[in-house]
């Protein structure tokens, strides 16, 4: 009798973590490595948030809390949704988890039965399909390639919906592409969803505050109030507030779903870290002025990376609307041979050879469900980005 569960065979380790670990091993061995794989801001958590955590420790707020979040934080989340998204929720419609990933996973575990389908536009965040598989559902990936600026079209969404569709996972701005849907583009998708009342919407808004130029962010339930009762609006403090390690995510949705998620969390992790919850409270209620320089830095880096990658032979790099990723197409590199003698058969070979020959770590596109591409996280210093892009240019120039 096998010791490990068959469930585990359905999933694979995160490719982004694997690349990060590979780069770390090379660094530890003394190699000159620039890691562009991790989706983590290089900025420090703002001081007022750190001070709030210290104050919570000094005040003895280190005990168990309510399973899915302290009342004060739930109230702040309700205020955030009202203030920034025009969405009205009550505290019993809010759940707080150990990072955004847990809230998504909890919702899928609580709702999916064998045979239930979940529509996921590709390229996608690497965890979406595996979480669906772990929950017993069937991921249905729908390509949204460079020809549509990595955005799902209404016709493609319509064609993917079946009587078995349970959820549509929506992510804007997107990981891995940074693509953001305009109000009109999102309205076109919600119009399709309104024709299919059995389909629920899981909106991952984690990169809401990281948008550039004149782009304006909208969430599905904000655009179409008719979807309010079947939408789980997910967010967190990890990206915009530079709090990845604090592990606080949250979501808002119908009471019955939120209650079910609380029941699951009560028997799995129980409450998120009490100290991190008080820090998140300060993040949401405190000054938001630091978001402007954060955005300005990311926009400057985006422009730098897009310009330099487009100067590399064989690479086409669209300019995204938000997040801190670009997703270049490398069709012009496939079939060529590197200066070190490796045939570039696909984007995985490209990424591994790039790391081996130049010390630049990126994540190959197949991990995100759309090839031939790779993802660059530009959440690192301008200097590191310039050097990395210069090495990528040199690598591409050496392909024959």
TrEMBL record:
Catalytic activity: L-aspartate + 2-oxoglutarate = oxaloacetate + L-glutamate
UniProt similarity note: Belongs to the class-I pyridoxal-phosphate-dependent aminotransferase family.
Name of this chain's protein: Aminotransferase
Assembly with partners or alone: Homodimer.
GO biological process, one term: amino acid metabolic process
InterPro entries recorded: Aminotransferase_I/II_large, AspAT/PAT-like, NHTrfase_class1_PyrdxlP-BS, PyrdxlP-dep_Trfase, PyrdxlP-dep_Trfase_major, PyrdxlP-dep_Trfase_small
Residues covered by the Aminotransferase class I/classII large domain: 31-392
EC number(s) given by UniProt: 2.6.1.-
Pfam families, per database record: Aminotran_1_2
Cofactor: pyridoxal 5'-phosphate
Root EC class: transferase
Alphabetical keyword list: Aminotransferase, Pyridoxal phosphate, Transferase
Gene Ontology MF term list: L-aspartate:2-oxoglutarate aminotransferase activity; pyridoxal phosphate binding
